[in-house]
Amino acid sequence: MNVEIRNLPSSKGKCLCATSNIQEGTVIFEEEPLVSCQFSWNACCKYKACDHCLRPLETAEENVRRLTGNPLLELPYPECCQTKQLEITSCPACGIQYCSEWCRTTALEQYHKVICLQTLDRSKVLPLEQLEETWKQMHYPPETSSIFLIVRLLARILQAPNSEEAIRTTLGFCHRTVNEEAELAHKFLGDKFIGQVGLLREMIVNALPDQKIGQFLTSEGFQSLIALIGTNGQGIGSSPFSAWRQNVQKLDLPPTQKEEINSFIEKIYDDFENHTGDFLNNEGVGLYLKQSCANHSCDPNAEIQFLHNNFKLSLVALRDIEPNEEICISYLGDCELSRSRHSRQKLLKENYIFECDCVKCVTDIKEPDVTSEEEMSAEDED
Fold first, then answer.
1. Which of 65, 99, 196, 249 is deepest in the core (most CB within 10 A)?
2. What H or E segment, with its residue span, contains residue 35?
3. For the residues 52-71, what does the mean pLDDT come to?
4. Strands (E), 165-256
């Protein structure tokens, strides 16, 4: 292992530090999440993914036909598709689908047994179904998180052989003061829905009533969980067509065929945009214990990638990293990183409640305190 978790001074949390030289492009580590789930609207819109690892359940050709609206489109090189449909299985009780028997049994052992029991009585409206519908009305696409991270976290504790150890693991994520958690919960749900925190909590209590998780189902404990998923949730994306494209581009083809397939792929992406827009992937969110210790920098030396087309996270070095150097990622997207220092600070303070003092922010400190939008307006007036 070429990285370790260290405690920062003055109770400022944790950080990831390199223990040896890491070259640019190196996969620093890979990690599976403590829990993860697909976004509710993403699943509702027929993006078919394994309920455990988010691996696509569509073939690349099925995926392309759906996203282009062309049911007759055929993909060449079908051997480049990674989807193994013969291995797809489902829970015999509730019918939830998985990409493999391993994912089905792992989910059952970790959390699904508790959740599955809540879905079997079809004679009444079920608390988890009510919860999902309520959540969907709060979070229209583009989605950024899911209340079902909390459901799976709690189900994991209930199913754990040692529930106290499972609780300690959950509490291992970065925690905030009560005031900070309240502010994060408010930001996470937004002004329109902040009054429904109690409703969400009540629905989860109805679905998972158990004294083992009582500390998380008080008003304060539930607010803490919302803050936890809001600040630690890591987006996950998978795509059967993207995996097919990457495999095709590795083929040793003659130059003419290379040019033809590249033009074909480019045309497909144009058709995607015309028919579906930007939402092409199976999308979800996960909680990663090690990755959550990586602090933010506006000039990061590492980035998160999903190289396995499922929920396994890879942390990749963006440049050479020296021993004892802190490994930082960006909590902002590429577009947000290109904004002014003032805009970056505003976003980080609103969403994560901290002021960034990275090298880039220190260098840019003499910039005027205006947002990027204000700068653009001033340029337009000139």
1. 99
2. strand 35-38
3. 98
4. 234-238
pLDDT in tens, 81-108: 999 999 999 999 999 999 999 999 999 9
Burial class (CB in 10 A: 0-12, 13-18, 19+), 42: buried
Q: What share of the chain is helix, strand, coil (3-state, %, to 5)?
A: 50, 15, 40
CA distance 33 to 295: 18
Question: Which has the closest alpha carbon to 210: 148, 149, 159?
Answer: 159
Paired residues of 56 in beta bridges: 49
Q: Which two tokens stand for residue 38?
A: 């697909």
309: left (phi over 0), alpha (psi -120 to 50) or beta: left
Indicate the residue type of 328. Answer: C
Would you tell me the crossing angle of helices 197-207 and 148-159 to the nearest 10 degrees?
A: 30
DSSP 285: E
3-class secondary-structure state, position 81: coil
At residue 181, the 3 state secondary structure works out as helix
